[in-house]
Amino acid sequence: MQQHNATALLAVNASLASTAPGRPVTPSSVAAGNVIYEGWVLKKRRKRMQGFARRYFTLYNSGMLSYSLQPGQPPRDQVLLTQAAVSTAPGRKDIHVDSHNATFHIKCLSEDDFDKWMAAFRKVVAQEMPKSRRSSIARSATRGNMQFGRVSLLVEEMGNTIADLSEALSTFVEEDRRRKRISTRSRSEGGHSKEHGVLGLFRKGHHHESPHLGVPDAGVAESPSSSELLKRMTTALEQLKNQHSALGKTFHSYPSIDTCPSGTVGSPLPSTAEEEDEVRTPSPGQKRMSAFSSHSDSSIWFDAPEYDGPEEYLLDVTPPADESQDSKLYFTDSRMTDRTEATEAESSTGMDTDSESEETAEKSFTEEPTVVHRRTSLPSGPVGDEGSLFAVLKKNVGKDLSKVALPVTFNEPLTMLQKAAEELEYYDILAQAVQSQDPVERLCYVAAFAVSTYANTKHRTGRKGFNPMLAETYEDVRMHLISEKVCHNPVILAWHAEGEGWELYATSSGKTKFWGKSMEIIPQGTIHLKLGEEHFQWTRPSSFIRNLMMGTKYLEHIGKMVIKNTSRGDSCTLDFKEGGYWGPTNVVSGVINSSSGDVLANLEGKWDEQMARKLDSSHLHVLWRITPFPKNAVQYYGFTAFGITLNEITPDLEGKLPPTDSRFRPDVRALENGDLDTAEEEKQRVEDLQRDRRTRGQERSPRWFKQVGEEWVYKGGYWEQRQRGWTDVKPLW
Predict the structure, then answer these.
(1) What is the 3-state secondary structure (H, E, C) of 237-267?
(2) pLDDT per residue as tens digits for the range 305-338
(3) Alpha helix locations (H) across 387-499?
C-alpha cells in the first residue's frame, strides 16, 4: 500500500513538474548571487480541505524564505529561516518551516528536489549556529520512550484523518440529498460528475486532488451504487473512530505521560480551534520545541532559553520496513549539529545507526539538559464574584485611580512588572528587523512589534495587575529581561531587555481615569529600541475599558503612535482606530514617511490579529501574526499561552532568583491557586510591611536602575550578580 501511494504520488509530482513553468535552479548556479536556491514546490493552503497549491519558493543568503505565484512576482509571504524550526518527514518529502509568525507546509516534487532544498536549508542553519555550540550530537531514547513517541504521532495522524474524512463524508451526504431533489435526467447526467468530484478524494488514482488526506482501504474502492459506497464509508469512519479512541486511551494511560519521555517532546501549546487541522511544528520564536503533539491539557512546553537560532527536527513517521527493528524517533538540534552534506543526507532518511555516535549523544544529553518544561494552564481560574467595579469607581470620577485601593478580586495573578514582560512576547520580530538590510522594511518590523505588544489584551477586561513593592524585581531569561519598580509615588517601573543585535528599554508609568461609562488608561513614558547603530523611540496611545455600567465590557486602544528613527529621520505613524457600531474593530493603519515627508510604505492590520505591509492593491507582506489563544483562555483571566508561564518557577530558575522577584509574592501565588482569602490577607500584610519600612526610614532603594533626567536606565550588574548569588539581598515580604 505504502509503495503504491509513493508511486502514485511520484507520478503526480512528475506531471506537475513537467507542466509547471519556471526554472528549477541548483544551489551552485545561484551561489554567486543573493539566492541560495529557488524552484517550484507544493505548499499547503491555510484553509481546511483545500489541499496543496503550486508555489515558487526562493531562499536567500540572508536566511529569508519567500514564495510567490510566479517567478519575479512580489512575494505573498516570507519567513526568516534563521529564527525558524525546520521539521522534515523524508518518507513523504515534507518540509515544515515554522517561524512563529507564519508556518509553511511544503511538499517537494521529487526526492532529489527534497534533498536539494534540505541542503540549502542546512547551509543557512550552519551559518547561523554559534561556533561554540557547533558539535556533533544526535539524541537517542530508550525503546519504550521511542515507541511512546510513535504512538502519539499515530494518534495525531488518525485524528487528522478522521476530521478530513468526516468533513468529506458530510459534503457527500449534502450533495447526495441535493441530487435526489432534482429531475431523473439531471440526476443521471450530473450525478456521475458530482460523485466523481467528491468520491475522487478516496480513489487511489486521485491523490493529487488532496495529497494530505489518508483514508483506509475500506473507504477507497469504487462501489456500483452511491448508497452502498456511502454505507461503506460510514462504517469505515466509525471503525476508525473506535480505533482512534482505544489507541488514545492507551496513549494517555502510559505511565510516563506526566513527565514526557526524553528524546520526545510535548506539544508546545494546548490545542486551539485555529490549529486543530494544521501540522504541528516547533515555534522557535518562543523557543518551544515539539516532535509530537497531544490534545491533553497536561501538554508540556520545552524551552531552550539560551538559544534563539534556527532548529532542525526529523520526524520519522513512516513504519519501518523491518518490523523486527525498533522504532526510532531522532531529534536533532542545529545548535549542536555540524555535519558534512553526505552525513546530513544519510541522517535525513533516518538510517543513522552508528552506535558510537549514539553513546556520545546519550552522554551529552545527560550532562547538559537544554529544555525546560513549561506549564500550559493556570492552577485555577478566577474564584468568587469580581464585584461591582462601577460601585468602586463612581466615587472617583475624573480622579487618578492608581491611588485608589481595590479589593484583590479586581486583580489578576500577575504583577505590573510581569505584565510589562508579557507585552514583549513577540520579541523575535526584533531579530527579523536586525536581519533586514532595507531600512524601510526594518521600520516596518519595528512597527509590527509595537502593535504586537497589545495582542495579549484581546480577552482582558477590568482586572489589573498587582502593584509591585518598591525595589521589587522580575526577570525573564527568554528575552534577557530585568525590570524593577523604581518609584512608589507616582508608580514608576523601569525595564531592560536585549537580544542579538537589539536592545529595548523603557521607563513606564501611567494614569487611570474614570469618565462615567468608561475607564481610560493613559500610558506615560518613552520606549527606546536600538538596532545596531539605529535608535527608535515611541510612546503608547490611551486604552479604554468600555461598558463599565452595563453590557459586556471590552478593551479598546485608540490614538496615534509615532515611531521615530532618531538616527535617520524617518518615522512611522500608526493609527489605532476607534471601532464603530457596525464597522470592524481593533483596526490599525500605518504610514512610513521619510525625513522629508515622502510616503515610503503603508501598513494595515489589527492589533489582535496581524500586521502587514501593503505591496500593491492585491499583495501583502505579513510582518506579524498573533499566536492563537488557549481554548479556555476566557476562563483563565484571558491569559495567552505565554502569559501563563510568567509566574511559574521552572527548574532552571530554582536557586537563581533574587528574593525580590515577583514570583515569590505570596498574595499573587495565593490568587493564582484560587485561595482568595489568603490572597487578601497576604496583600494586606505585604503592603503593611512596606508602610512600616517607610515609617522607620528604611525604605528600599532601586538597585539595578539609575535616574538620568526624567528616565531610569539600566546600570548593569544584575546578570553578573545572579551568577554569584543573592546573599546580600533581603526579601520584601
Answers:
(1) HHHHHHHHHHHHHHHHCCCCCCCCCCCCCCC
(2) 344 556 666 654 444 343 333 333 333 333 333 3
(3) 389-393, 416-422, 428-435, 439-452
Q: Are the C-beta atoms of residues 679 and 671 closer than 8 Å to each other?
A: yes
DSSP 185-224: HHHHHHHHHHHHHHHGGGSGGGGGGSTT----GGGTS--S
Instruction: Give 619's strand partners.
Output: 616
3-state SS track over 104-147: EEEECCCHHHHHHHHHHHHHHHHHHCCHHHCCCCCECCCHHHHH
d(CA 312, CA 337): 9
Predicted confidence (pLDDT) per residue in 271-296, tens digit: 443 344 443 444 444 433 333 333 33
Listing from the earlier edge strand, what are the strands of the sheet with 85-89? 77-80, 64-68, 52-60, 35-44, 103-107, 94-98, 85-89, 311-314
Burial group, residue 215, by CB count within 10 angstroms (0-12, 13-18, 19+): buried
Strand extents, DSSP E, 566-654: 571-576, 587-593, 599-606, 610-616, 619-625
Residue 505 cell numbers, joined: 528599554
Pairing of strands 534-538, 554-565: antiparallel
pLDDT tens-digit series, residues 349-378: 333 434 444 344 333 333 344 588 899 999
| Rounded Cα–Cα distance for residues 346 and 339 (Å) | 10
Query: Which residues partner with 92 through β-bridges?
Result: none
Q: Which amino acid is at 384?
A: G
pLDDT digits (tens, 9 = 90+) for 20-79: 433 444 433 333 358 899 999 999 887 656 678 899 999 998 888 999 999 989 888 888
Selection from 216-220, 247-251, 445-449 with the highest mean pLDDT: 445-449
